[in-house]
Design brief:
It catalyses: chorismate = prephenate. InterPro entries: Chorismate_mutase_AroH (IPR008243), RutC-like_sf (IPR035959). By secondary structure, the protein is α/β, with parallel strands linked by helices. The protein has one domain: RutC-like (60s Ribosomal Protein L30, Chain: A, 2-Layer Sandwich). A six-stranded mixed sheet has the order 3-2-4-1-5-6, with helices on one face.
Length: 122
């Protein structure tokens, strides 16, 4: 079964170092909370709000041991008025035997406001 594992974080400014660092923290939390192995991840989609363009957040994945060959794609989030700004969202498609209720979605920084009903916040 393929399941989606969601995560989101924010940065406080459009800066390459911050974007990569906060995305890596999010990746590591999602991996840890869901006991993920790169070989079980089919693909990763990353979206950013319009105010993030200093770096590709996918660059963070290259910093994680064993994740070099996991397909990843970055894209822009829909620009909805009054939505959370400076936000990076990740959707991992994971091969797992876990049920939907066993998946731990991770929201960090200001992104905890997005789905407090589903999140594991760090």
């Amino acid at each position: 079964m393929i399941r989606g594992v969601r995560g989101a974080t924010t940065v406080n400014m459009n800066d390459e170092t911050l974007i990569v660092r906060e995305t890596e923290k999010l990746y590591l939390a999602m991996i840890s909370e869901n006991e993920l192995k790169a070989d079980n991840v089919a693909s990763v989609l990353i979206s950013v709000t319009d105010d993030i363009d200093a770096a590709f957040p996918a660059k963070a994945q290259r910093n994680i041991e064993g994740w070099k060959y996991v397909p990843v794609m970055c894209m822009k989030e829909i620009a909805v008025p009054e939505s959370l700004q400076l936000c990076i969202r990740i959707m991992m498609h994971v091969n797992t035997d876990k049920g939907q209720q066993e998946i731990h979605h991770v929201y960090l920084n200001n992104a905890v406001s997005l789905r407090p009903d589903l999140s594991v916040s760090k």
